[in-house]
């Protein structure tokens, strides 16, 4: 399908949505492929919308409030997602429906991690194994997995769409198989979009399972790659090993480490001060629960629960654990 006559003179603008332009604004389906190449080049030249930074900041804040852990991943070469989806071209590309920016669907990340774990991590990660690790992390037909994989969105001004090409040298052989490939076959260049840049990967779930999922993604993104044409080196990403945590998360982790570092002899004189810090801390209920759990565990470890159990502040901590 080509664009309507009333849109024939439309041109790319700073506010153009790349996904909309790719799907709706091919000029004509000429046999030489000129319009297809032009369309891919036009889309590759479209930048992130001006509103994207504000949207990204709000989206990241929502992830942090939801309790997601985030890391940045950088494409080491080029990446192509959604190459085989329906398109006005012979090839497609995954562009965010509203914002028109390249992104990695959470389903693609989950599928990659699941496949890599099943194939590379031994018998404990085979679906149906006694350990149940695969079903716990990724889910099965009976229950959802413990880890949720969000779409990976590009960092503001840190990714670009790129014009790329696949050259099929023996089209008749690959499509029909009626004649063997020969040196005199005419090559058929097929234009397509790829992308580079940095993306924010976000996971949510129990901390130990989220950490394990990130460890799997570190390996699978660098070794196997995500998306199409991975056998040609596309889709490789370098994932940061250090979790990007919010200041609130850092404050919570620091407080828990301080509690855990107390010696048994220090508990009697210091533990109530940690309760007071816990009481004043404005974080989500799950984080409050983690700190309360650390304080209670330290009291028990020091053998002081019998002396403390009737105190109002200790009862408040215990109620936070229920």
Outline the structure in words.
The protein has helices at 18-24, 34-44, 52-66, 106-120, 133-138, 171-175, 207-223, 247-261, 264-280, 285-301, 305-308, 312-320; strands spanning 69-75, 148-149, 153-154, 161-168, 188-195, 198-204, 237-239. The protein is an alpha+beta fold. The protein folds into two domains: 49-239, Alpha-Beta Plaits (2-Layer Sandwich); 247-320, no CATH class. Strands 1, 2, 3, 6 and 7 form a five-stranded antiparallel beta sheet that branches. Strands 4-5 form a two-stranded antiparallel ribbon. α1 packs antiparallel against α2 (34-44), α4 packs across α7 and α9 packs antiparallel against α10. The mean pLDDT is 87.
The secondary structure category is alpha+beta
Instruction: Classify the beta-strand content into a percent band.
Output: 5-15%
CATH architecture of the largest domain: 2-Layer Sandwich
The average pLDDT score comes to 87
Give me the Rg, rounded. 26 Å
Shape: elongated
Unreliable segments of 5+ consecutive residues = none
Number of strands: 7
Largest sheet: 5 strands, antiparallel
Query: What is the tally of helical segments?
Result: 12
Annotate the secondary structure layout.
Layout lengths: L17 H7 L9 H11 L7 H15 L2 E7 L30 H15 L12 H6 L9 E2 L3 E2 L6 E8 L2 H5 L12 E8 L2 E7 L2 H17 L13 E3 L7 H15 L2 H17 L4 H17 L3 H4 L3 H9 L2
Antiparallel strand pairs: 1-6, 1-7, 2-6, 3-6, 4-5
């Amino acid at each position: 399908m080509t664009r309507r006559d009333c849109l024939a003179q439309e041109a790319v603008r700073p506010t153009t949505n790349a996904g909309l332009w790719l799907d709706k604004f091919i000029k004509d389906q000429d046999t030489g492929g000129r319009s297809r190449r032009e369309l891919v080049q036009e889309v590759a030249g479209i930048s992130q919308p001006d509103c994207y930074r504000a949207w990204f900041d709000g989206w990241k804040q929502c992830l942090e409030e939801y309790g997601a852990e985030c890391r940045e991943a950088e494409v080491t070469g080029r990446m192509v997602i959604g190459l085989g989806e329906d398109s006005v071209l012979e090839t497609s590309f995954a562009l965010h429906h509203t914002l028109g920016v390249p992104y990695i669907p959470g389903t693609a990340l989950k599928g990659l991690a699941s496949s890599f774990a099943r194939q590379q991590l031994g018998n404990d990660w085979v679906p149906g194994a006694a350990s149940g690790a695969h079903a716990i992390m990724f889910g099965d037909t009976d229950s959802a997995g413990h880890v949720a994989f969000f779409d990976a969105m590009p960092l503001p001004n840190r990714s670009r769409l790129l014009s790329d090409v696949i050259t099929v040298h023996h089209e008749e052989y690959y499509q029909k198989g009626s004649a063997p490939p020969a040196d005199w076959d005419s090559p058929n260049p097929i234009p397509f979009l790829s992308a580079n840049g940095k993306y924010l990967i976000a996971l949510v779930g129990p901390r130990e399972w989220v950490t394990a999922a990130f460890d799997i993604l570190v390996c699978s993104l660098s070794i196997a790659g995500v998306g199409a044409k991975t056998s040609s080196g596309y889709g490789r990403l370098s994932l940061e090993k250090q979790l990007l945590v919010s200041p609130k998360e850092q404050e919570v982790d620091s407080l828990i480490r301080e509690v855990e570092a107390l010696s048994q002899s220090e508990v009697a004189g210091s533990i109530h001060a940690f309760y007071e810090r816990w009481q004043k801390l404005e974080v989500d209920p799950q984080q409050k629960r983690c700190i309360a759990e650390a304080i209670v565990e330290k009291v028990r470890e020091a053998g002081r629960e019998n002396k403390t159990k009737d105190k109002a502040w200790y009862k408040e901590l215990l109620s936070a654990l229920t």
